[in-house]
Specification:
210 residues; Rossmann fold; five-stranded parallel sheet; globular
C-alpha cells in the first residue's frame, strides 16, 4: 500500500485538488551592521517555533566568522561561483556590501511562499529596494539601533572585525540610516524583547488588502 508521501496531492485530497495555501508574505529586514537585526530574527524563530515563517539563507563571498556554519548562517562561495550564479539568474536580488557580494536565491523564497510560509530576508538597503521593485507586496522593515554610539560599541564588542572594517561598516551605517524613512515600518532595537514582539505582531497581522 502506498504511504501518504507516495500519493499525489490529488489522491490524498480524496479526488479533488487540495486548495493551494495563501502565499506566504515576504518580509525584508534591514538595518546597519550592529543594529541587531539578525538577533531579532534568531529570537523570533526560537521563541515562536510554530510561526509559519522561514529565514532566507543568503549567499556571500565573505569569509565565515568564527562560529558561522555554512548553509546555516550563509552559503559561502568564491567570487567566481557568485558571479556564475548571478549570470544564471539565481538571485532575486544581489548587492555589493562592504566590498563583498551578497545575494538572495530566488528558488527557496518562491517555494516557501507557495507553501504558505512567510520568508524573512535580512539584507541591506540596496537589496531591499530591488525586492520592493520586483515584489511590490513585500513589507520592508528597518531596524534602528538606539543610537550611532551604541551601534559603534556593538561593532567593537564583536571583536571579529579590524579597525578598517569597523570604519567601513560605520560609514555604511550612516548611509543606510539616512534611507530608513523609505521603509514601510521602523523598529527600534533598544529592548530585544520588544523588538521581537513587534516583528511577531507584523507577521501575525493580516497582509494589507486581505
Ligand atoms: P554581514 O557580513 O555582517 O553578515 O552582513 C553585511 C550586510 O550584508 C548586512 O547589512 C546584511 O544584511 C547584508 N546582507 C546579507 N545577506 C544579504 C543578501 O542576500 N543581499 C543583500 N543585498 N544584502 C545582504
Amino acid at each position: 500500500m502506498a504511504t501518504e508521501s507516495e500519493l499525489t496531492a490529488d489522491e490524498t485530497s480524496g479526488g479533488g485538488l487540495a486548495p493551494a495555501p495563501a502565499p506566504g508574505r515576504l518580509i525584508v529586514l534591514s538595518g546597519a551592521s550592529g543594529s541587531g537585526k539578525s538577533t531579532i530574527v534568531d529570537r523570533l524563530l526560537a521563541d515562536h517555533p510554530k510561526l509559519p515563517v522561514r529565514r532566507s539563507i543568503s549567499t556571500t563571498t565573505r569569509a565565515p566568522r568564527p562560529g558561522e556554519i555554512p548553509g546555516v548562517h550563509y552559503d559561502f562561495v568564491s567570487k567566481a561561483e557568485f558571479a556564475a550564479g548571478r549570470d544564471r539568474g539565481q538571485y532575486l536580488e544581489w548587492a555589493e556590501v562592504h566590498d563583498q557580494y551578497y545575494g538572495t536565491s530566488v528558488e527557496p523564497v518562491t517555494r516557501f511562499r507557495a507553501q504558505g510560509l512567510s520568508v524573512i530576508l535580512v539584507i541591506d538597503v540596496q537589496g531591499a529596494f530591488i525586492v520592493r521593485d520586483k515584489v511590490p507586496d513585500a513589507v520592508l522593515i528597518f531596524v534602528q539601533a538606539p543610537s550611532l554610539a551604541i551601534l559603534e560599541q556593538r561593532l567593537r564588542d564583536r571583536l571579529t572585525d579590524d579597525e578598517a572594517t569597523i570604519e567601513l561598516r560605520l560609514n555604511n551605517a550612516r548611509r543606510e540610516i539616512a534611507l530608513a524613512d523609505r521603509y514601510d515600518i521602523q523598529i527600534t532595537n533598544d529592548q530585544l524583547d520588544r523588538a521581537v514582539h513587534e516583528l511577531a505582531q507584523i507577521l501575525q497581522s493580516d497582509p494589507p488588502g486581505a
